[in-house]
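Whether sequence alone determines local backbone shape is best considered at the level of individual chains. The sequence in question and its structure tokens are set out directly beneath this paragraph.

***
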Amino acid sequence: MSNRGKLEESMKTLEEGIKKVKFILDGYPACKLFTSEEYMRYYDCVYLLCVQPPPFDLSAELLNRYHATLDESINLKVLPSLKDKSGTSLLAEFLRIWTNYKAMLKCLGGFFLYLDKKCTDQKRSAPLKEIAFSCFQNGVCNDLLPKIFDAALLLISQDRREEPIDRSLLQGLSNFFVENDGPKKGTYYHMFEEKLLTDTSSCYARIASEWLHSYSSADYILKVERCLNDEKGRLSQFLYPSSVEKLLQLVDQLVILD
């Protein structure tokens, strides 16, 4: 077989692996889709395609294929699964699909490991994981994040009213924020913190007004103390300590007696 024929055969084999890897987005575990021998076979395909002398080096084509795999996965699987959902169901599905997306990336990362090393060593592209996260952010988060924030704020509001909620959803969203650059200014976490501060201000301004008209000063102070303790316990489960402190200071200012 000619060298070109070997390269075409390697690309065809790799395409078979890429087709299978997309099933991970549906929840199929990678260990049930691929054997260790298959992992190595796909890795070897990428390696062969990357180490050829010009004009047979197909690194650039492989990088484009990696991009295309992410775009196809987002457009054909991720976005349809989130379409028409709202509230808790949207948040739960978003976190499920994010978990599956990361599992898919881990598998793809094994296939494209040599390409990742070659591109980053030669400064030809960002690391593949960074590219993959950026694709998810641009393709999914930019449009859906406002609805996801609203769903999280609704859960927090229900929790304040002592309605039963699934707090693991808030913890899962917090983990998503951490994985996407944490609390730095301009990040998803920072954006959510600002929305939560605004929502909390509105909530406790209303509550304080109602309590002042309904309770004696002594009872009011007892309710404020309980409120602050409850809020600290609630927020500490999914926010950074600095954010918890900001929110508690805000609540304290809103409910303090004149």
